[in-house]
Task: inverse folding
């Protein structure tokens, strides 16, 4: 399975709630930069947190890739979600190529769990960082990090 993990772009600092924070102009630019890394990828699904900034980031990626499929909004990709719950939910996508659009601290902890088998080594995910993971199984310690891209960088 190929799994792409994307942290949302830069968001405004204040809003009525954390869930309502929207992308800044810089955040939209960051997402546009990393979206090109997904060109020609056979994404089976884009799964996103219900938070506004993640929804906006996912929509920007979908539009940049010219995809018409809906973004799947899932409640288990919010900042404080349990990475182990995410693993069980991803069983439904086994063998497919999937993009998750989410937040810190979840995205770093999830990547660390998938790569190292534990959460003590979270992957450093800045705004709009994109991680590419691959493995036969979506399980703790069962995936390899193929690339980690930050805005203004390209794939290894």
Result:
């Amino acid at each position: 399975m190929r799994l792409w993990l994307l942290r949302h772009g830069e968001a405004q600092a204040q809003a009525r709630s954390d869930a309502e924070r929207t992308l800044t102009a810089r955040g939209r630019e960051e997402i546009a930069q990393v979206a090109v890394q997904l060109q020609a990828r056979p994404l089976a699904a884009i799964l996103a947190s219900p938070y506004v900034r993640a929804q906006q980031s996912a929509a920007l990626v979908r539009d940049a890739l010219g995809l018409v499929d809906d973004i799947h909004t899932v409640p288990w990709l919010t900042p404080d979600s349990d990475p182990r719950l995410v693993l069980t939910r991803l069983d439904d996508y086994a063998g497919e190529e999937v993009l998750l659009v989410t937040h810190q601290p979840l995205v770093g902890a999830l990547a660390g769990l998938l790569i190292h088998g534990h959460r003590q080594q979270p992957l450093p995910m800045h705004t709009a960082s994109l991680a590419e993971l691959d493995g036969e199984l979506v399980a703790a310690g069962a995936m390899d990090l193929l690339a980690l891209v930050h805005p203004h960088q390209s794939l290894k």
Notes: The first strand starts at residue 2 and ends at 7. The longest helix spans residues 52-65.
